[in-house]
Specification:
The chain has three helices and eight strands; from the N terminus they run βαβββαβαβββ. With 133 residues, the protein is of the alpha+beta class. It has one domain: 2,3-Dihydroxybiphenyl 1,2-Dioxygenase, domain 1 (Roll), CATH 3.10.180.10. Strands 2-3-4-1-5-8-7-6 form an eight-stranded mixed β-sheet. The two termini are 17 Å apart. It binds zinc ion. The site of zinc ion has 6 residues, from β1 and β5.
């Protein structure tokens, strides 16, 4: 079962301008910046109640975030749902006919194990599954 929306991922071109923008918008400060080399992104996190906002900036032109921004511009990139057991959720989701991007959970930002459901099988939305380590 997916238990809550953990965070919303937003693709941005430049964290130096996006962080102060979201600090002003949310009225709170960014609590963590972290680079995830396997995903080719630098992330910046904000807390908004129980839900987090994750800004994502590409670390290079070969990053999926760079390709996303090239095609669609800045904006909402994914919605992440939390689960207590990512392995059993991956099996459940495959059985339900969805396609996962990775065959095994990957190391994500903010101390999470993550995977993604392919947007083509999820109504055009890139859905992230995440579990706290
Ligand atoms: Zn995410």
């Amino acid at each position: 079962m997916l238990t809550q929306i953990d965070h919303i991922g937003i693709a941005v071109k430049n964290l130096d301008t996006a962080i102060p923008l979201y600090e002003k918008l949310l009225g709170c400060v960014c609590y963590k910046k972290e680079t995830v080399p396997t995903e080719g992104v630098t992330t910046a996190f904000f807390k908004c109640g129980e839900t987090k906002i994750e800004l994502l900036a590409a670390t290079g032109s070969d990053s999926a975030i760079a390709r996303f921004i090239e095609k669609r511009g800045e904006g909402i990139h994914h919605i992440a749902f939390r689960t207590d057991n990512i392995n059993s959720e991956m099996l459940r989701i495959i059985k339900e006919g969805f396609k996962l991007i990775h065959s095994e959970p990957m190391e994500g930002a903010d101390n999470m194990m993550i995977n993604f459901i392919h947007p083509k099988s999820a109504g055009g939305v890139l859905v992230e599954l995440c579990m706290e380590k």
